[in-house]
Write a structure and sequence with these properties.
The chain is α/β, with parallel strands linked by helices. The chain folds into 2 domains: 5-121, Response regulator (Rossmann fold); 131-220, Winged helix-like DNA-binding domain superfamily/Winged helix DNA-binding domain (Arc Repressor Mutant, subunit A), CATH 1.10.10. The protein contains 8 helices and 12 strands. The chain has a 5-stranded parallel beta sheet, with helices on both faces. Strand 3, helix 3 (61-71) and strand 4 form a beta-alpha-beta unit. The radius of gyration is 17 Å and the shape is elongated. The protein starts with a strand and ends with a strand. The relative contact order is 0.11. Bound molecules: calcium ion.
């Protein structure tokens, strides 16, 4: 595979130049925009990941995220948000973002997220049998999931989280394992994003399907 392209949409010059330097050193082809308006046009087929600041001078980052997702369903989108803007994070995930980082963040942490996002977006091409538990079926190869006859409209991370739980149905899956497998990080300082995803998954697969194991993780009940 050729070098994955990263589109960085960030109006803060200090953050943008730091990120560009680090990503560049890792071999990513980085293109930077300081406004959101041209993001969709600039997001060519060479771009595998967009790092998107939510506070942009022209178009709201959430709206940019929505447009990018509509234009490029397979794109990885990582949003950057200022501390304490949790509603923004939820809105961003609803608008199709795969992951988020709260500023200020550690560059090592960001690089881990970038790698994980691109690995997922770049096509895990292994053709797996669909996973089944309860009335839930997850077909990772097709990136689709069903409850009974009803197909579930899941975001990319929700799909992977559900797949992990279904593959381990009846067994506890630790938060650490989930953070590592789904978010590509061993960082568990704040796992609010995991809680948010579990909450929304329960809407899809049934409130009683996923049990919270306090201090441990989660278990998809297999009966
Ligand atoms: Ca900004």
């Amino acid at each position: 595979m050729s070098t994955p392209g990263v589109l960085l949409v960030e109006d803060d010059n200090a953050i943008a130049s730091g990120l560009t330097r680090v990503l560049d050193a890792q071999g990513y082809a980085v293109r930077r925009l300081s406004r959101g308006g041209p993001a969709v046009t600039e997001c060519g087929p060479d771009i595998g990941l967009v790092i998107l600041d939510l506070g942009l001078p022209d178009v709201d980052g959430i709206e940019v995220c929505r447009r990018l997702r509509a234009a490029r369903p397979d794109l990885a989108i990582l949003i950057l948000t200022a501390r304490g803007q949790e509603l923004d994070v939820v809105a961003g995930l609803d608008a199709g973002a795969d992951d988020y980082m709260v500023k200020p963040f550690r560059l090592s942490e960001l690089l881990a997220r970038v790698r994980a996002s691109l690995r997922r977006a770049g096509g895990e091409s292994e053709v797996d049998e669909p996973l089944r538990a309860r009335d839930v079926v997850v077909d990772l190869a097709a990136r689709r999931a069903w409850r009974g006859d009803e197909e579930l409209a899941l975001r990319p991370k929700q799909l992977e989280l559900l797949a992990l739980l279904v593959a381990n149905a009846g067994r506890a899956v630790t938060r650490e394992r989930i953070m590592f497998d789904v978010w590509g990080t061993s960082w568990t300082g704040s796992t609010k994003t995991l809680d948010t995803h579990i909450l929304s998954l329960r809407h899809h697969v049934g409130r009683d399907a996923i049990t919270t194991l306090r201090g441990v993780g989660y278990r998809l009940e297999d009966g």
